[in-house]
Amino acid sequence: MAHKQSIRRLRNLYAVLLRLYPKPYRERFAEPMEQTFNDLLRERADEGKGLLGFALWIFVETFAGILRETLMTIPKYILRPLVLTAIIMLFPTFGSLYVTDWHWHWYSFVFAGALVFAAALGYELVARRMNNKTYRLAVGVAVISAFAMNWTNFAVGVFGEFDDIPTKPFYWGVILIGLIGAAAVRFKPRGMMYVMAAMAIAQMTVPVIALIVWPVEIRHLRHVAFPMLFAPTVAGAFGANAIYAALFIGSALLFRRASRLNPQMTQI
Amino acid sequence: MAKGTTNAPLTPAVLHILLALSAQERHGYGIMKMVEADSQGKVKMGPGTLYGSLGRMIEAGLIRESDKKIDPEMDDERRVYYKITALGQKALAAELQRYREVIAVAKRKSRQPGIAYGS
After folding, report:
1. Residue from B3, B5, B6, B1 nearest B95 by CA
2. Residue A65 is nearest to which of B28, B29, B52, comparing CB atoms?
């Protein structure tokens, strides 16, 4: 009698757990799963074995099944960026836990995760449009360059963390040129070549604007990004920007090559 | 598991389920008990693994749902029975043939000097 009550309670709990399955799966299998769970418990009760530990194992095993089935309902072009983001975010997580002086706030994790996910999703959405290795490489270089530039801009600023030169919005402008341009040319390789060239030009325009608008401040920079490569000087500021511009140009050249390999895709 | 293919190697769970269904149709609990018996208790599947595999096997055309029936040995609750399809039979035969070939290779190699398998 006591067993019957325990089985009924555990079965009810199991039915609640089964509600977490995706709807189509639940509609198909929840009833037989509940029945099987009931059979298993009854068998154990008849053998005089304990129910709780066994039920716990079934709950954990079923929960793993729920995760698996839920992940399988997510389209691959979203799942891959999600997995990549999770893997990459392990580094700052371990860094924050075990590395001295590495203390990220929760919003840093959210921002970094969102940035990685957006970059990976952007690659998936654009690169999957064409089965051409050069085009995919070009998209990869473009996405990684834009990601690195954005990361630097947000994290420390291309002109340094505590700079007196408010250039951050200008770099968002560079990304905006890329996004609007790519949509305008519908991601076609020849059009993308021009978009990447425009991004490179826009990138190099930022230090020029800074030199014109903030001539004193730029001469007294405390540091620029890539401090190992560049001294905090005017030349250093141009050098730091030139690295990103060179990456955008590299991507533009790859898009040009892709457009030559696929002449039918050259119209913009 | 692509639909309509019999050449791809099967996962251990799928192989055991096909084996359990090869002689007769069974419900979920029946499959679990058969798998446990076939593997001498070495393979224990929970409902999460079992029904996840069953769903993918139905999609791949290896098994299909049979009618709901009452198991006279259990109680009066109706259970969904599963049945192996012709494609499932083929996939099982192909997998067992693969195992036979592996065993044949292992036997041949075990006759070579200096190579010993098992304890």
Report:
1. B6
2. B52
* Nearest residue of chain A to residue B79 (CA atoms): A32
Which structural domains are found in chain B, ordered by start? 12-110 (1.10.10.10)
pLDDT in tens, A53-62: 999 999 999 9
Which residues span the domain enclosing A143?
129-265
* One domain for residues A146 and A253: yes
> Does residue A87 sit within a domain?
yes
For A36, the closest of B32, B52, B55 (CB atoms) is: B32
Indicate the number of domains in chain A: 3
* Res A268 pLDDT > 50: no
Please report whether residue A124 resides in a domain.
no
Residue A214 has pLDDT above 90, yes or no: no
DSSP for chain A, please give it: -HHHHHHHHHHHHHHHHHTTS-HHHHHHHHHHHHHHHHHHHHHHHHTT--SHHHHHHHHHHHHHHHHHHHHHHS-HHHHHHHHHHHHHHHHHHHHHHHSTT----HHHHHHHHHHHHHHHHHHHHHHTT---HHHHHHHHHHHHHHHHHHHHHHHT-TT-TT-SS--HHHHHHHHHHHHHHHHHTTT-HHHHHHHHHHHHHHHHHHHHHHHHH-HHHHHT-S--SSTTT--SSHHHHHHHHHHHHHHHHHHHHHHHHHHHH-GGG---
